[in-house]
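Regression test case RT-17, inverse folding.

Input:
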C-alpha cells in the first residue's frame, strides 16, 4: 500500500512539473492567444498579434504587431495598430490573482480614423461594439472559476509617439495628425479587472484621444458644414417640389372653374 501511495504521489508530482514546464515553455503563445481572444471579444472585430516575448524570470516582456481590424463597412483594413509594447510584471503577484503588471509602454500606436460615404465613423462603430460587449452584472460573475477570466491590475500604461491617419470620404481628404501621449494609472483598481474589461477601457481612452485630435484639426467642423449644406439642399428640393405641386394644383383648380363656368353659361 505504501508503494502504491508513493507511486501515485510521484505521478501527481510529475504531472504538476510537466504542467509547469508546459506553461513556461509555451507562455508566449498562451499570452498571444489570450490577447487575441479577449481583444476580439471586446471589440467584436478581429484582434491579431504577430508575436509575444515574455521573460518571466526577469519580470518583463514585449508584444509586437498588435492590430485591431476595422468594423464592417469601412475601406481601411485596421482601426488601430500598435508598435512594440513593453511591459513589466510584478513577479510576486504571479502566484495568485489579481496579477499585477507594473507598467505597459506602447510605442508608435497608430489610430485610423475613417468616415465612409454614409457619414459613419469607424471609431464610433467600434465604440458601439465595445458597449455592446459589456456584460451584465450577472454575466460578469461566472458560476465556476474554470470559466472565469483572470483578473489583472495595471499600475501604469503609456501610449507615446503615436499618430492618427484620417480618411474622410465625404470631404475627399486624408490627414496625418499627431496623437498626444496618453498616461493611465491604476487600471483594474484594488480588486483587478478582467482582460475584456481592461481592453474596453484602454481602447476607449485611445479612441477618445484620437477623436480629440481630429476635432482640434477642424475635421468635425468641416463635416458638420458639409452635412448642413446637404440638409439645406434637401430642404430646398422639398420646397421646390411643394411649390411645383401647389402650382399644378392651382392650375388644375382654375381649369376646373373655367370648365364649370362654361357649362353654366
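Golden output:
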Amino acid at each position: 500500500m505504501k508503494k502504491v501511495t508513493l507511486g501515485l504521489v510521484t505521478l501527481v508530482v510529475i504531472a504538476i512539473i510537466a504542467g509547469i514546464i508546459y506553461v513556461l515553455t509555451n507562455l508566449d503563445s498562451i499570452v498571444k492567444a489570450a490577447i487575441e481572444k479577449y481583444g476580439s471579444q471586446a471589440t467584436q472585430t478581429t484582434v491579431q498579434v504577430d508575436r509575444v516575448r515574455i521573460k518571466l524570470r526577469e519580470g518583463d516582456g514585449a508584444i509586437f504587431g498588435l492590430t485591431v481590424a476595422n468594423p464592417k463597412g469601412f475601406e481601411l483594413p485596421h482601426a488601430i495598430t500598435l508598435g512594440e509594447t513593453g511591459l513589466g510584471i510584478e513577479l510576486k503577484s504571479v502566484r495568485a490573482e489579481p496579477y499585477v503588471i507594473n507598467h505597459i509602454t506602447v510605442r508608435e500606436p497608430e489610430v485610423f480614423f475613417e468616415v465612409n460615404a454614409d457619414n459613419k465613423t469607424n471609431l464610433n462603430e467600434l465604440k458601439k461594439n465595445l458597449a455592446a460587449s459589456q456584460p451584465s452584472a450577472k454575466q460578469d460573475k461566472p458560476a465556476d472559476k474554470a470559466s472565469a477570466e483572470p483578473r489583472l491590475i495595471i499600475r501604469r500604461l503609456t501610449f507615446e509617439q503615436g499618430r492618427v491617419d484620417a480618411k474622410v470620404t465625404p470631404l475627399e481628404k486624408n490627414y496625418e495628425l499627431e496623437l498626444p501621449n496618453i498616461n493611465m494609472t491604476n487600471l483594474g483598481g484594488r480588486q483587478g479587472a478582467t482582460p475584456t474589461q481592461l481592453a474596453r477601457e484602454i481602447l476607449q481612452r485611445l479612441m477618445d484621444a484620437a477623436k480629440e485630435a481630429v476635432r482640434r484639426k477642424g475635421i468635425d467642423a468641416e463635416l458638420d458644414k458639409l452635412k448642413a449644406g446637404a440638409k439645406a439642399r434637401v430642404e430646398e428640393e422639398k420646397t421646390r417640389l411643394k411649390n411645383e405641386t401647389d402650382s399644378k394644383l392651382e392650375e388644375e383648380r382654375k381649369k376646373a372653374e373655367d370648365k364649370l363656368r362654361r357649362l353654366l353659361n
